[in-house]
What does this fold into?
Amino acid sequence: MSKIRVALIGAGQRGKDVYGEYAIQHSENIEFVAVAEPNDIKRDMFAKRHGIDEDFVFESWEPLLEKDKFCDAVVIATPDDTHFEPASIALKKGYHILLEKPMSNNPNECMELGRLAKENNNVFMICHVLRYTPFFSKIKSIIEDGEIGELVSIQHNENIGYFHFAHSFVRGNWRNSDLSSPLILQKSCHDMDILLWLVGSNCTNISSFGHLSYFKSDKKPEGAGERCVDCKIEEECPYSAKKIYYNAVGRWPATVISEIQTEEAVKKAVKEGPYGRCVFSCDNNVVDHQSTILEFENGVTATFNLSAFTNKVHRTIKVMGTKGEIRADDSRNEIELQLFDSNERKVFNPKVVTGGHGGGDTGIMNDFVSLILSKQGQALTSASVSVQSHMMAFAAEESRLSNKSISINEFCSKF
It folds into this structure.
């Protein structure tokens, strides 16, 4: 086999613009031969872009998976609450699977997918792309090489970015946990996974605290309108939809709010669609800041902080060991290693790889394709491993809501 043939379920921003474009750029190794997508415009765009036969263009995933197995793999990039059924059916039909995170917004379904993964020999990967970035891979290698001695603790921060939070978690698809997922699951199962990977030990206990403090009606400034286009104070608001989208035509995040990427279409979407609402007048309920404390079997402790209230969209991390510490900022692609005894300081700037998530999107697709073609090897983000970080996120949310420390083993035993 020199090329894998893939079906796409969900031709949204991730499916169409990330995985689809990867296939265009790596056509010698991968091609999309089917698509299932309810949105007419997105479905037709993807089908034309990839030259898909009309008999393999579907409005939903059900008729696609009703067919006998006709290709090698399925990429599933649908909303959070629609992952389990197509993933489990595709797995049982013998497809290799790349599944967008989170695996599911239901802990029972996550546990079941983890069990199915262990029973199946096919490639079944979850899109925890951070493991595939040169940035986090270098940090992992420094820890494993023992350069900082024994690992003791980690401080990790996800700085979501004020405009990104307003786009995705106030106005957007993941604004309401009743409709999608809790913030720490949807946005930060990545970070639970990277902590699990860096520590190299199972998490045993977790405590979490967080609130929706700002993006709510009682914080709405005087003079603010229901929509940004009709707001008297829009020019002085950093969360203005006009500021976020008008100058982003043809690229994220404007590509999310309108299938047609013209100035006229984007302005129409801001004027009429959900992304033009005042951030203080939405139906959002996910927290805008959260702090989590984690304890691992090997005695390592970690803190994880996520916040909407940052200028840049980036991650920063401090890793502390018995002989030295690591300070790193992915936005600068800089990793600083400081040793104690010699006072030696080293700075690393990992190789820059094209693709979103600091090259992680490209890295995970490279691995997915390679594992299927070679028929050997183990994925860094197999579903059987990824279920652990998902349950950590669920437990963190349980801790936040109950104001109690949660034992991971006891929590998982309920599902």
Q: What stands out?
A: The first helix runs from residue 13 to 25.
